Every structure is written in C-alpha cells, then in structure tokens.
Amino acid sequence: MTESEHGAVMSPSESMTFIRRLGHQLQSTPNPHALGLAHAQVLVADELTMLAEDGLTPELLLELERRVVDAVEQANSAFLRFDLRDVDSASEWNAVVLAAGSTVPGLSEEASTRKLVIVIPLAFSTEGLDGEIVFEAAQKQRAVTPGEALIFPAFMVPEFSVHGTGQIDALVAYAYGPAFR
Fold first, then answer.
1. Longest CA–CA separation in the chain, Å
2. Please, what sign has the CA dihedral across residues 42, 155, 90, 75?
3. Contact in structure between 93 and 171 (CB atoms under 8 Å)
4. pTM, rounded to two decimals
C-alpha cells in the first residue's frame, strides 16, 4: 500500500492505475557521462608540421605530455568523472597505426585498472584523407583530427574508419584508477 498526495492509502493495483492515468512510463535514464567522448586540441598545425619533418623531439614530447595530462584532468572533472589516480607518462605511450576497422585495447582482465583511453592522432598516411572514431554500441561518432586527443572510457570499444585507402598514425595512452567492480 502506498500513500497518495491526499493522504489516502492506495493498493498496488490502484497505484499502477493512477500512474498509467497520469501517463508516466518507467524507463531507465542513461548516464550521459559514462558513455562520453571528450576531445581536446593538444597539437597545433605548426607542431604537426614540425612533427612530420623532424619527428617527436624531446621538447615537444614533454609539452605534449603536459597538455594531454591537463586535457584528461579537465575532461574527467567536467564530464567523465572517473576515480583517476594516474595517467601514463609519455615514455609509456604506444605508437599505433590505425587502418579502417582498427580498434585500440581498452579494458581487459589484465588491465582492469584502465579507466580512460587517450588516442592522439598525429597524421593520416595520405594527404587529404579523413576518418572517424565510431562507438557503435553507444551510437556515437566523431571525426578524427590530427593533433586532437580523443578521451573515452576504457570499457567503450571504438572502431576507426578511414575514408579512402590509408591509415592514421597515432599515440595511445591510458589513465588509471581503482578496478571497475
């Protein structure tokens, strides 16, 4: 038995009739933060050109690391809201080549403390290419832009699409926290 606004006690069937009469429908409300994709520009055009010509210099790598950590902290505090304890240092980042249909490792039994994945596209293999990161299950996608870090929960499995033939050179890093329960 439940009590109505007017103080009268209603039976469960009366409560359901009342709810239906008001047109209420019970439904889950997804957490928009849990299935989020954050992004931040971490390299500008001049730096991308320098990177293509000279490679990743120690100075640029140090500055990029600072920018990535700052972007992760901002995205997490404002949007994603995970319990983070650490972000990979630049020496732990993985250089990857992403072709159409590629994905990046996220959460796994061996890596249960990974909370966020950070993908930093550096360049397309062919001038004029473009691509997207697609999260089919969450029905989200975003254009891939060299120099723009893509930050997303480790339990989300993306697929990269490249329009045309080619690939994306990128760096992958992780942010860590207590294991998911």
1. 78
2. positive
3. yes
4. 0.79
Q: Distance between CA atoms of 91 and 23, rounded to whole angstroms? A: 57
Q: CB–CB of 115/82 below 8 Å?
A: yes
Report the SS3 class of residue 115. Answer: strand
DSSP state, 25? -
CA distance 70 to 127: 30
Contact between residue 147 and residue 60 where contact means Cβ atoms under 8 Å apart: no
Q: Which two tokens stand for residue 108?
A: 């796994």
pLDDT tens digits in sequence order for the chain, 181 residues long: 444 444 455 566 665 565 455 443 444 334 444 567 899 999 999 999 999 999 999 999 999 999 999 999 999 998 888 999 999 999 999 999 998 889 988 877 778 899 999 999 999 887 777 899 998 888 888 999 999 999 999 988 899 988 777 899 999 999 999 987 6
**3-class state of residue 81 by DSSP:** coil
Rounded to whole angstroms, how far apart are CA atoms 84 and 89?
14
Non-local (6+) Cβ contacts of 90 within 8 A are 61, 62, 64, 65, 173
